[in-house]
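PT: before anyone asks, these are the final sequences, not the draft ones from last week. 1092 residues across everything. Please model them as a single complex and drop the result in this thread when it's through.
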Amino acid sequence: MLYDIKLKVEYTFQTPAAGARQILHAMPLTIPGRQRLIAGSIDIDPQPAMRREREDFFGNRLSDIAFNEPHSKVVIGLKARVEVTGSAEPEGSFGRPASASPRARCNNRSRTPLAAAFSAASPYARPDPAIADWARAKSRSGSQCGEIVGELGLALHREMRFDAAATTVETPATEAFAARHGVCQDFTHIMIIALRSLGIPAGYVSGYLRTLPPPGQERLEGADAMHAWVSAWCGPGVGWVEYDPTNAVFAGTDHIVVAYGRDYADVAPVRGAMRTAGGQTSSQSVDVAPVGA
Amino acid sequence: VPTSATAKPPGRSSILEGYSALPGVPDELLRDDGTVRPEWVSLIAHLDGLSPAERERAFARGAQYLRDAGVFVRHYGEEKSPRDWPLSPVPVIQPASEWQALGEGLAERAELLETIVADLYGENRLVGEGHLPAGLIASNPEWLRPLVGVQPASGHFLHFLAFEIGRGADGGWWVLGDRTQAPSGAGYALENRVASVRAFPGYYSGSNVERLAGFFRSFRDGLNAMRREDGSRAGILTPGPMNDTYFEHAYIARYLGMMLLEGDDLVVDDGRLMVRTVSGPKPISVLWRRLDAAWSDPLELEASSRLGTPGLLGAVRSQGVTMINALGAGVLESRAFLAFLPRLSEVLHGKPLAIPNIATWWCGGEAERDHVRANAGEMLIGPANSTRLPLELEPGAVLRGEMPDTGGELGSWLEQEGRNLVGQELVSLSTTPAWEDGRLEPKPMRIRVFMARTRDGWKLMPGGFARLAATSQDPSAVSLRSGGTVADVWVVSDRPVSDDTMLSHADEVFVRTSPGLLPSRAADNLFWLGRYVERAEGQMRLTRAYMSRLPETPAGGTPLMSRLEGYLDDQGLDISEGVSATVERTIAMAVNAANQVRDRFSVDAWASLADLERTVGNMRKTVVPGDDAASAMGVLLRKITGFSGLVHENMYRFSGWRFLTIGRSLERAIAMADLLAAFAEWSGPHGGFELCVEVGDSVMTHRRRYPVAASRDTVVDLLALDPLNPRSIAFHIDEIRDQVSLLPGADVNGQLSELSRAVLRVQSELSVNTPQSLDQSKLVELRQAIGLLTNDLHAQFLE
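LR: through. Structure below.
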């Protein structure tokens, strides 16, 4: 599947912001066997004084940008062509049968702090007793890891109401869970907390979702902005699987990965800091069109 | 030198009488057999040579020094009333030979820590090979992912360390905890030393107590040697005055002669770190940070931080700045490391730790968990990744296996939470004599020692910062967690020591160095300090003028008094109070501004400002309107001019002083224009001219210059136009013009700056006037024009 992706992010400041710096996580990754970035560019207006591309801890691509002159508006425009050749659904076996101890289930034996990072608490995905209780109740003992991911994701999708107005970036996942509403970010964080509470390492995937559905299929939620879903480690036999709880599907060829992290904080599309007295507003638009479709 | 403790004058009892070690616990002063350790002998003899009254006076001198110097303890959440520094005057004495061995052992430990932290931010082999649990590192909040793979510019992660040490029951030293992030306490150790020198004036100079200055000089030289070769500087990064150890940051900055900077003073430009100064951005390439890493860059670390510098990590990544210590080095402060260091020493150095650390078990392993469960009665179990000091109680910690009511059963807690817990042995520590109620008492103690990487390798400070428990009852280290006192640590050589100072040696070539850079924020605070001090003085003069007239004012009042009441009211001065809350507030603002630039003041100037604040606070409670208030204002005026005198007599004429002076002149010119506009009317209330002369503190001058009674002409001439009267508007406009012309950027390519032009306009406008032409409306215009200079100043220097 070949896609042309466009992202436009606009920031407006009440009073001109001086010395603004930003980190962008927006360019799709190349993942062998899964997706390939064919071409991509990011245009920024006004022209930043400094711009550097580098890789972060998790292997994501990011851009550092800095402005010297004060400005009251920034427009970031991304264009990318990506070929998607695989999916992140579990293939064949769903992993080793879970043992009696939840902690031992799907245990990650990998001896690197990179993998271990996905087991520990992170700023937006801290342990929560209510979510842990829920996760225990919804996962059948004896299930295999991949099944648990699918079952939990489906259960979450059934209980939660998608509501773009109910939460903000700052709403804690526990609050969104208590009210059973939110957006893809909330769905994803809740599921990460749930999986980690069962001993399954889990992380946050930020990316794009095909905007227009193939003929005869429904449009997916979250397609008009950057999207988020869950990545879970199902042991060395199965590896990482990705599940989109907002749409109750394993991430397939409609999902285009930009970045992996422990939670939103690691992969926020635009992270910035500046000196400004007033507030700011921002808007985002995304267009993901299949080429030649 | 007396050789035994019995060298006391006959008939007087030794202070050692009644002092004895606690059973089973080593004592720093006494050997097990009750005899005095040799390094203490001469100090005890000295103390025995003093009468009890002399002794108390000597100790009081030390305490007085600390109060005068403004050394205090502030805790977050306690906005007001920082507490007195609880110094026990009797130092802890250690023989130099023992200190030497300690230094060698701790240098090995420092190298071990350096190897580990370099691995954690580099190849991660220790985790990969199973020597450290991956999960423990991953959940360590100080393991900063954005810094993984970043090589420090200096080639080293660690440059300045502190170790908490205590002497165990076997008489050997134990490390209780490692401080690798931004250790505090070295400045307090210096201050404790100054205080103990005061307390032992005749004794210290002839003693063989090793001096501290050499240690700091080597460290500073090491910092300077790490600077990039682009004329860049080294500075100290502080979280600011609200931090509980800010005093120390300012003290160290002054002591080392380094710039004290806050995150807001810095900007990152093209991978280089710059200080925003009144002369424009200037490069800085070495930062001794006293700010925890997580707060240092809101762009990549804690996003809510207002203490940091956006983009700092970018500068670190491009090796534009060396951080002391490297950002992320705090990962080693986690308690759980103590469980792995003994093994890591074997693995990496091929030998056991030279100085052992307190026995610690990470409960993530089954065998360790079982051990902790079985021995919980002798342990403190707490969060594995806590960076608090060893054996400190905190939420979630369990002492001696006593679970809280809601905590459930110990075994299942360990089973559930083991990965996040460590058990630490409750060691008992040696005692040292503390001075309490006129006698010596043995108190458990621990010492914070400091180690610096110098050009000659790791160096241990010959001294330290001892903390003494409040109680003698419990020798376990837990008793040290709160309360108690602190003490200086003397390392005594058996040879005479050299009198070392921070100053250059006489045999070095003399170079007059240029005065340091002035960060814009510091300039801003100095400017406002000048304004607030002057404003407070003006408020005092006005209050005194009113209060001294009050007793003779008839019941119905007079036109002058009612106008004065209105004028005071406009200034926020409440005439129903003897000392108005507004005066107190203005002084508090001055103190606040001074506090932000504390590194730039002498101890005397600071003490006099603090004294002023205290006095106003006390007067507010007792002074009543009328004569009482008038004379209180006299006292305050003498105190505030004392501060101004100290500043203007003693402060070097660098840019900072100019900003202070401009602030003072601006405020005084504004206040005078206000006063004249209100009271120097041709047809104003009777007595208005005299009031102006009095508030303008020019009574004597007026009498000498004009053989007539005060009239509008004489008053406006003297207080507005006379360039020789230090109370006149003209005098201060001249002063502002002089100072502005000496500031950096007074002219740009031969053209006057905006500010210089604005000052010149005010000056020439004023100088063409006569007392007759400078009427009330002109005075009001003049006041506004002077007020607007603040904006120009701000735009040119302070943004």
